[in-house]
Amino acid sequence: MSTERLGTEQGYRHLMAYLPEVFYRTDREGTITMISPSVTNVLGYPADAVVGKNMARDLYLDRRQCDHLLEKLARTGTVNDEEVVLKHHDGHGVLVSVTARVAHDPDGRPNGVEGLFNDITRHRKIEDERTRLAAAVDQASELIFITDTDGIIQYVNPSFENVTGYSREEAVGQKPSLLKSGKHDTAFYAALWATITGGTVWKGRIVNRKKDGTLYEEEATITPIRDHTGRMVSYVAVKRDVTREVTLTKQLRQAQKMEAIGTLAGGIAHDFNNILAAIIGYTELARMDMVEGTPLMENINKVLGASYRARDLVAQILAFSRQTEQKLKPVNISAIVKEVLKLLRASLPATIEIHQRLLMPFATILADVTQIHQVLMNICTNAGHAMRSKGGVLEVYLGEARDEFEPPLPLQHLTASDHICLAIRDTGHGMPPDVIERIFDPYFTTKKKEEGTGLGLAVVHGIVTSHNGHITVESTPGEGTTFKIYFPIIFAKVFDRKQTLGAKLPGGTERVMLIDDEVDIVQVNRQMLERLGYTVAAFTDSAAAVATFESDPHCVDLLITDMTMPGLTGDHVVQAVLTRRPDLPIIMCTGFSEIITKEKALGMGVRKLMMKPLSLGALARTIRELLD
Q: Disulfide-capable partner of 398 in 51, 358, 488, 546 (CB 3.0 to 4.6 Å)?
């Protein structure tokens, strides 16, 4: 070996002792002739044990990788950063990056390969983890964005773009205030920034605004990010859009509240109906002893009329607070309008004038009276709210669907001859177009938090639609709002309660058993029945009544029983009685009961279910209907 070459070899070995990478050299057959000591750190072999081994056969886990590398060397003379898997001393694979070239002898002829390789297993794991993390962030359903310490957005993920409507290009370089909704004050944001700049994670809910102006609520976690020295270098925000969740929670709370109101209203209705039963009953008895046409008779008729309205009001309370079955019947809509306006006059401030133009006083529509009440009360109450600060005029129009209230183009298929128009116009503050577009959406409201639920106009729209009607709204900010409702007109006679007040009531001589735990109701109903000619056995104790009946099942021709009573309830009374007398006609009365419906009553053998308070006329006609 020449002195020059020996010096070169010694120089290589001296250099190899300090290299973290593994330097190696092979001859033309691939036998390792030189390798640096760092091979021990990478592959676990002592350097001396590796010299003399065949590179392809002994160190490559997959020889095809070696063949590919040698082929590339033969073609190009060099390879750079080629990734291959070498065999560790204990048998597992080690991922390395190889840079090599063809070696030449002094005459320039190829005589082997020399190169470097280093372990990139850890580096690759870090890269793979980084790739997985980037994919997870990109594919996450949560909104994620990263800012520098000045709050400048550096990165946003696709979910951010999808939810906010801002593209990555539009958001990067901006501040998060791009999404500011105006729903939070400066103190809110100051507290947020104080938390994260102090190195603490901030968690909370934020109402933000999308690019299209829509508000949305998000649950956010904002975390300070530190480098290896502990210095804060950025903030990462992970947010979840909880708008739908919040809406569903509100709906659940509203449903629970309405259920609670329904339960409360039911109890009130039961007690109030018992009071009304006595008032109506004794008033009807007094009326039977009076002369028609006298001032006293007129006063009594007014008492009865007020009592009937109170009874209807209880039914309305139940309808407002519970999902009751829709009952459509021919009704005089003009009469409903007058009644609602009379109720409103007492609740609206004196600064609001009410003008009514009822041009079709005898118009009849097929409707649920209670629901039409609800529609009118809701719209008119909203109108009152719109005018309460400055006063104004509430105008209610009822007439054919034409003139200045002609239907707009979308409703041109309606004709004036077969539809009636009910219009409610106020001179309040009005609404902008974006509010009008959402006015019938559930839970959308322009009122303050304590003023309403946002359910009203959505319910109104549903009621009108269920009546085969149409509703439109026109509004100009600063000028007022007009709602127009179109109902199909029908031609049918409307029942008039006043016409029945003086009618002769049918009576009889049969025996009637009367059961109710309320003493006043038993007394008044007993007198009413006796005035009609019946023989009455009255009980306030249902168990005593059943015992009397069982001692002589044929002692009565008709049973009238309350449903809700202490001891034996009405359904148990019916069961006990029908066991002895399956053919006995039974009338069940109830002020309100969740466990009894018309279908259930008929199913247990009851012939007629009547709602309290009973009127003498309705009771008299029902008794004859069952006995005749």
A: 358
Say whether both 481 and 530 belong to one domain: no
Q: Which two tokens stand for residue 336?
A: 């409903």
At residue 286, the 3 state secondary structure works out as helix
Name the residue range of residue 483's domain: 325-488
Confidence of residue 20 (pLDDT cuts 50, 70, 90): confident
pLDDT value at residue 60 = 94
Task: Give the separation between CA 210 and CA 166, rounded to whole angstroms.
Answer: 8
pLDDT tens profile 296-355 = 888 888 888 778 877 776 765 665 555 555 678 888 899 889 888 887 887 788 899 999
Left (φ > 0), alpha (ψ -120 to 50) or beta: where does 584 sit? beta
Cβ 37 vs Cβ 68: under 8 Å: no
pLDDT of residue 409: 36
Q: Is residue 205 part of a domain?
A: yes
User: How many domains is the chain partitioned into structurally?
Assistant: 4
- What backbone torsions phi and psi does residue 294 show, to the nearest 5 degrees? -85, 160
Residue pointed to by tokens 């290589």: 12
Domain edge (last residue) among 488, 522, 540: 488
Q: Quote the CA–CA distance of 314 and 525 in Å, as a whole number.
A: 21
Residue 126: how many other CB atoms lie within 10 Å: 11
**Mean per-residue pLDDT over the chain, rounded:** 84
Contacts (Cβ under 8 Å, ≥6 apart) of 98? 69, 79, 81, 82, 83, 84, 115, 116, 117
- Rounded distance between C-alpha atoms, residue 367 and residue 73, angstroms: 92
Strand partners, 352: 392
